[in-house]
């Protein structure tokens, strides 16, 4: 029985809180990551870490800041506070957060950086006199070391924001990004100069993207990239163990609210928000932003996705006429992860680095990428559907939402009535090349946008299954034809033995043959049989 008063004793959830001192000082729930922090600060000096947005990078920077400031009281009860693990000697800390630095023009970026350096100097009663930005940075670091007698810590959060904010804005946006890149290249290069490097204790940069070393880090090429380091695979995000232990009370509260079992709640959380893998080591983590919001709202929403819709990415995929059917089984080489360039954007690199695809499997140097979880798959498919099938969002979005329910109920007449309305909502002027691949793409995107667990282009030893749609009690095996007939599609499923891989799973197997017509620009006929 759900009782809202029972949940008043739960630890507060840190929705939108990125300041470690606020989180710890005001009693918010904190998943202890200080074991990983300790490894960083004791085993190295120059680091870089890339992770998708809202994955805890800013909180990690804030944690490092408080640690190096010697604020031991904030770490009471955490792993790193055990005797002998850390000497709580205060160090001067330079924190530059590009979320708070104006960068809409190169001039404003220079001015914003200069003001940030001045502000930090002021907290240590220093005055900076160097007129040039790079000289000012050198002056600050050397001045802090002289004033305190301690080596300096430099923490830079969202280092790439002055670049990635201008992707997708055409040539004018790229011109701003290139100019900002030149400024940042020289600015970051200060940290490798002999005078500065000898007085540094620790340097840590975070961002979303991993620009190649020749692009932005040519002057700071001694950074160790943690982004795909096995030891740091679960440094950000929540592991299964952390979810089950630190969020046990919140899982129980959500189960009471929904009148579900705790096991059912955790299974749904796993399906919706788990699955991110950032290294060869097979460790999966939950999206922390979505987990916190789901427990807070007591609903399984698409929280991470709607916090920053990837309009540029969707437009790029459409512009490149990218094969949207294979996003869930995308094979790439290891080189993809280190070749991000402003002037040579690769959709696969963007999709991975921004968190819309993740590592599913690794074999030697071949990586298989796919959607991390149902939240991303459903929401990104919806955005792609409305971009590729212009007109659907305005005229048939309600039909999209009903598709999965119709299939679950096995109400195929209602399903195809909705699907026909979806295709009919696409203006004829946007027809393009209406072939089987086009119809297949719209069909697949509409299904996944409705929340279905659908997989496309599944390879078997006798061919490729066009589409498989999974439910707890059944699976639909679907074959498409264009300007032929539905019976031929059904015959191919049987001739190729496409249902064989599902027979041993204890589910019913429903065979569905569909024929599209280029003249009608729609579904022409369909037929169904049970295996």
Task: Explain what you see.
With 531 residues, the chain is an alpha/beta fold. Among the domains are: 31-227, Rossmann fold (3-Layer(aba) Sandwich), CATH 3.40.50; 390-531, Trna Endonuclease, Chain: A, domain 1. Helices cover 42% and strands 16% of the residues. The chain has helices at residues 20-25, 34-43, 57-68, 106-123, 133-148, 161-164, 170-189, 194-197, 240-246, 248-258, 262-273, 288-297, 303-306, 311-319, 347-353, 374-388, 392-395, 397-408, 412-424, 436-449, 486-495, 500-503, and strands spanning 46-50, 93-97, 152-157, 200-207, 224-225, 330-333, 358-363, 366-370, 453-460, 463-470, 474-482, 508-517, 522-530. The strands form three sheets. Strands 2-3-4-1-5 form a five-stranded parallel β-sheet. Helix 14 crosses helix 16 (374-388). It starts with 19 loop residues before the first helix and ends with a strand.
Feature tags:
single chain; 531 residues; alpha/beta; Rossmann fold; Trna Endonuclease, Chain: A, domain 1; 5-stranded parallel sheet; 5-stranded mixed sheet; 22 helices; globular
């Amino acid at each position: 029985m759900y009782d809202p008063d029972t949940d008043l004793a739960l630890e507060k959830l840190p929705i939108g809180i990125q300041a470690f001192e606020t989180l710890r000082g005001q009693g918010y729930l904190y998943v202890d990551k200080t074991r990983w922090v300790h490894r960083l600060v004791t085993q190295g000096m120059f680091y870089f870490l890339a992770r998708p947005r809202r994955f805890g990078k800013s909180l990690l920077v804030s944690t490092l800041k408080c640690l190096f400031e010697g604020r031991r009281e904030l770490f009471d009860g955490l792993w790193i506070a055990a005797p002998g693990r850390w000497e709580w000697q205060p160090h001067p800390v330079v924190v530059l957060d590009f979320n708070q630095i104006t960068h809409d023009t190169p001039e404003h970026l220079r001015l914003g950086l200069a003001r940030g350096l001045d502000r930090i100097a002021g907290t240590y009663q220093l005055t900076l006199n160097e007129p040039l930005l790079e000289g000012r940075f050198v002056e600050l670091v050397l001045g802090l070391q002289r004033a305190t007698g301690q080596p300096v810590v430099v923490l830079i959060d969202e280092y790439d924001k002055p670049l990635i904010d201008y992707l997708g804005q055409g040539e004018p946006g790229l011109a701003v990004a290139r100019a900002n890149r030149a400024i940042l290249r020289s600015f970051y290069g200060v940290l490798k100069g002999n005078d500065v490097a000898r007085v540094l204790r620790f340097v840590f940069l975070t961002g979303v993207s991993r620009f190649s070393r020749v692009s932005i880090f040519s002057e700071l090429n001694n950074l160790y990239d943690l982004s795909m380091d096995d030891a740091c695979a679960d440094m950000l995000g929540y592991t299964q163990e952390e979810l089950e232990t630190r969020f046990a009370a919140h899982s129980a509260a959500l189960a009471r609210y929904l009148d579900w079992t705790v096991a059912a709640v955790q299974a749904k959380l796993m399906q919706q928000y788990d699955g991110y893998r950032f290294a060869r080591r097979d460790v999966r983590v939950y999206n922390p932003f979505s987990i916190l919001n789901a427990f807070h709202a007591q609903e399984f929403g698409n929280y991470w996705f709607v916090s920053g819709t990837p309009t540029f990415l969707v437009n790029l995929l459409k512009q490149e006429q990218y094969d949207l059917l294979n996003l869930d089984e995308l094979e790439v080489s290891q080189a993809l992860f280190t070749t991000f360039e402003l002037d040579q954007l690769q959709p696969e690199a963007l999709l991975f680095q921004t968190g819309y695809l993740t590592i599913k499997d690794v074999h030697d140097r071949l990586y298989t990428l796919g959607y991390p979880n149902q939240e991303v798959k459903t929401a990104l498919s919806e955005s792609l559907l409305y971009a590729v099938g212009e007109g659907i969002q305005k005229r048939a979005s309600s039909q999209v939402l009903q598709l999965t329910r119709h299939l679950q109920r096995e109400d195929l007449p209602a399903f195809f009535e909705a699907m026909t309305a979806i295709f009919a909502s696409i203006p004829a002027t946007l027809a393009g090349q209406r072939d089987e691949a086009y119809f297949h793409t719209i069909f697949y995107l509409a299904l996944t946008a409705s929340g279905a667990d659908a997989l496309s282009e599944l390879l078997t030893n006798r061919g490729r299954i066009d589409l498989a749609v999974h439910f707890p009690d059944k699976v639909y095996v679907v074959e498409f034809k264009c300007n032929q007939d539905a019976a031929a599609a059904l015959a191919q499923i049987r001739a190729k033995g496409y249902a064989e891989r599902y027979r041993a799973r204890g589910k019913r197997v429903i065979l569905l043959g569909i024929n599209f017509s280029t003249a009608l620009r729609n579904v022409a006929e369909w037929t169904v049989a049970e295996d």
